[in-house]
Fold this protein.
Amino acid sequence: MRQIFLLATIFVTLSACAYTIKIKDGASAYERKQFAVAIPLLEKEFKQAKSRSDKGRIAFQLGDSYRRIGQEAGALPWFGVAYEQNYGAEALKAQAYSLKKLERYTEAREVFKKLGIEIGSPYEFRKEITACNVAEGWLKEAPKNGWQILPNEFNSPQNDFSPAFTPEGTLLFSSDRQATKNKNEYAWTGNRFMDLFTADLKNNDVQPFDAVLNSPANEGTPCFNAAGTEMFFVRAIGAYKGDDAFCKIYLSTRNAPAEPWSAPVPLPFQLEKINYVHPALSADGKTLYFSCNDPEGWGGYDLWAVQRSTKNESGWEDPKLLGRSINTTGNELFPTIEADTLYFSSDGLPGMGGLDIFRTYKLKGNTWAPPYNFKSPLNSGADDFGLLIQERTPPNSAAKPGDLLCEGFFTSNRPGGRGGDDIYRFEQRVPPPAPPKTDSVPPVAPEAYKLILEVYVLEKIFAEPDNPNSKVLGRRPLKNAVLDKTANDKKLHYNTREEGMVRLELAENTDYFFNASSTGYLSGVGKFSTKGIARDPKNPVQTFELEIVLDKIYTNKEIVLENIYYDYDKWNIRPDAEPTLNRLADMLLQNPGIRIQLGSHTDCRGEDRYNQTLSQKRAQSAVNYLIGKGIDESRLSALGYGESSPAMNCACSQCSENEHQANRRTTFKILE
């Protein structure tokens, strides 16, 4: 699993809630995502730990804490220690990604190979091994490509990121530096919450931005309309008191550039419990691009576009997901737009380690050109994002080596900076001419345009092979699976080969739907669309991948449903539980022969009879929800276990809150 936290950049799972529970140990701080608090406590506890299992767990938590506050170099040695202390493949995987982000590609490649062997699936990390090879080549080319990267004096020891120009021409950016309006520290990073600041590029003087827009919450990633009368930015705030903070895009207006900004309001098309980040407005002000982790996307964070509309009361149409050539199952973030060119960052497209900066541009038919990676030195093994083009001189026949092509700013947390995230200035000049090639290569006839899709059918690899509730170490190809492809009302059948893959040539501008099945596994579905994928003259044969993961059928074994929580003394289904139950409903619809039992467990607190009644009501609520989604009642049953079958065997008075939470679980069981 590639998990990403971009310290003061994405605002993923930011919490505005202050924990009132006093932190006494590193494990508690880590569990509550107070990583800056956890590090010194865990380091002390590691020295005191006696067993290898305790040392391995603490070392991994230390590495993960350093990673989540943006200190990859601090994380790497702890992941190595965790693996040496038998923490297992998870530590080895974290070590491999740390090496890659630190541009130690030779070492990373070997660790990825070792990791694939250890979990029993070289397939899982083949892309990472290839990416290490490619990145090494890009580093060798960097001195010859005309780019120069320069730091800025206004960077702070904290995080400075996502530069933008105000209508008045000053540089506006986001920061959690000490001068923020909010005096509270964010326990995740140990820094202040984020505000907006301006920088005078002549004297590097930095001042807080508008007092109306900076608040005790987190603010960041602004953009403006051409007239300077509208400002879009992100604020993280809870939907209600005590709720986790989710990011929303806000709009503030003014009648003229010299007048004050209005109190900001969130844009109306945004849904609750979803993060909307990184707005970018087109030059004509009609299209707003942004990044969002809507589950209707391709995975992770995706890029979306929304049009203004005079026909809708809200003033906006429904947002539309950008095409599959841009969005991946990873994260696409930080869009900026200039004319018909879209710049953004991605960790799902082939890159150097973390987020890399890409560019694409609009073609006919509202399609986008295949993204271009800027390579080194603009990109690095670290996270590179938030590109701002200040000036560009298009190359022409009269351009000479050394002439300026473009300049601007971007953000990176690469080693050698002043803080966590730093804003860098860049210049691109015409490089010197390449030496003439002496070997003659016969001309090659251009290939015909093709769109190739490789569909892989996979199964999960569990840390404990017979325990579907244990950690997932990776996936491996499932050979001899059946794959059905449907497009334009036509269905075709295929069988996966030894490598669990079917290679298909697709038609342009077509939606494809896939169903995969195998004996002893639940059927799974996938989709792929060639709509919006433009022809690339430099790469006429474009190859894409689709992965469909099938779950093995474990009969009469309880499988925990993640993220199913209930309010105290309540049994109604909360909105944050619906996505998990929706996925369960989809599984049942795809597997009409399956019957399941929904189970609910309580922790040990409270009277036995009360807990039994409460758990039965909760299990029945889950059943009722699935019936409402079209599942036949005869395929479902509800059973409340009360406190009779705890997952964690601890004395009730001595159970930690995490152990109580593990015992308060909702499960499903496939019945024979």
Q: What stands out?
A: DSSP finds ten helices and 34 strands in the chain. Residues 312 and 318 are 10 Å apart (CA to CA).
